[in-house]
Amino acid sequence: MPKPSPTVGFVSLGCPKNLVDSEVMMGLLDRAGARLTARPEDAEILVVNTCSFIDTAKQESVSTILEMARHKTSGRAKKLIVAGCLVERYRDEIQKNIPEVDAVVGTGELESILEAAGLNPAPAPISGSPFTILTSTRAEVRSGKESQSGTHKGRPEGDARERSGRFLRDAWAGASSTLPTYLYDETTPRLLSTPRASAYIKIAEGCDHPCTFCVIPNLRGKFRSRRFESVVAEAEQLVARGVREITLIGQDTTCYGEDLGLRDGLATLLDRLARIPNLKWLRFLYAYPNRITGKLLETIAQHDNICKYLDLPLQHASPDVLKRMKRGASADIFLKTLSKVRAAVPGIALRTSFIVGFPGESSSDFEVLEEFIKEASFDWLGVFNYSHEEGSAAYALDAQVPHRTIESRRRRLMKLQQSISRRAKKNWVGRELTLLAEGSSAETPLLWEARTEFHAPEIDGKVFINDFGPLDDLEPGHFYRAQITESHDYDLVARILSAAN
Ligand code: SF4
């Protein structure tokens, strides 16, 4: 008698990059015969893919692990597996302090999820796509292998930073000193958990930048790009499965290809992917400010299906803070970059994020940031409180900003952005745009939710549809022409004009 397939429940925490890791692990489990379930109470094996970028993410990871552990003591679950960034940081501690955890899987060893689950790897199918579309009944998602080989030389910048100790994990007791080198490829099975028409592709992993507040390089390893042909093949397979919107991600997408000897790697990749027939929207997230080249902007402007959208995390605008963050630049330099972007790609939507309360951030540094935000007028903006992370270079800095000051600065910036956004969104009223319908709204079934090319999945405001115009019904994952009829602080309301291809 063959062993019955185990039922696996999967919880994915953190950012889209972690979500792709979850999709790869779910794909491996699915191909090996596991059945995925959205109900943890039905699962025999529970997997929590964790995030540990900042303190609040760590707390959420630990409380989710403890919540899932309860299914082992009072439910059906026989095994609890913890995966992801928390494992890279606290590998030994997790099992020592949470005895319900049976196995851990780091970010560089996704394939060992099979061993952890007690499954044998299944042979790859002779032909066909490695993708399975995950339906909402199969797993809960909150929110092949291409390991570094001869083709990856590493970037000289990263090698130099490694020699200077950038990637050391000495400060983290219980972490293994080995950095992850894993990259998935186009043959790796993936169980897609995003809405049917949209998918992420991770084009690179790790980061070589020296930002002093950030421990991601220590968690994810040195920057490494996936092979150009592997990304193209994955995108073609996704589009053949009905995906119409692809979002390229990585810790820093604008460095794509530098380790492969490519010049203007991201621009070249975008230019190639934009030629895939039926790919309606293509975008990339997480650009590094000094890597926005003329060629990249030209490529965005040239192709109708490359979304006029740029996510450019700037972190601060005061030159003193940026210097201590080891990012450099200043408000003036950023304003020049933004005008170059806006001139090259008229109408482009800009998203950024800032950290408030970095050690030594004075009230005048904060005012520089405030003035910069007023002048730059971003379409979308996120503000994060500084998180004091052991293992980051900033951990050694004095002049901590009190928590209350940090929180009040964050609120002040969010309020400022709210008024900027409210004013800007008013200008959208009357515009005719293409929308991607996502389904009926979680807030009320009377409204549908949709996005334009100026809204990235999950993170930006929404477009609510309250009038189907000449159509009886809408289909999720389909495109429509629509007119914006109302604006709010961040959200818009639209009326459908017609179906679109
Ligand atoms: S570029 Fe981003 S991921 Fe890389 S070190 Fe800086 S903040 Fe961290």
What does this structure look like?
The protein has 501 residues and is of the alpha/beta class. Helices cover 31% and strands 20% of the residues. The protein contains 13 helices and 20 strands. The chain has helices at 16-31, 55-74, 85-97, 113-117, 156-163, 216-220, 228-240, 265-273, 294-302, 319-324, 331-344, 363-376, 403-426, and strands at 7-12, 35-37, 45-50, 79-84, 103-105, 131-133, 190-192, 198-202, 204-205, 224-225, 245-249, 281-284, 309-311, 349-356, 380-385, 432-440, 448-451, 463-467, 479-487, 492-500. The chain has a five-stranded parallel beta sheet, with helices on both faces. The protein has a five-stranded mixed β-barrel with strand order 16-17-18-20-19. A three-stranded parallel beta sheet has the order 8-11-12, with helices on both faces. The longest helix is centred in the last third of the chain and has 24 residues, at 403-426. It is globular, with a radius of gyration of 23 Å. It starts with 6 loop residues before the first strand and ends with a strand. Mean pLDDT is 92; it is low at 135-144. The structure holds iron/sulfur cluster. Iron/sulfur cluster binds next to helix 6.
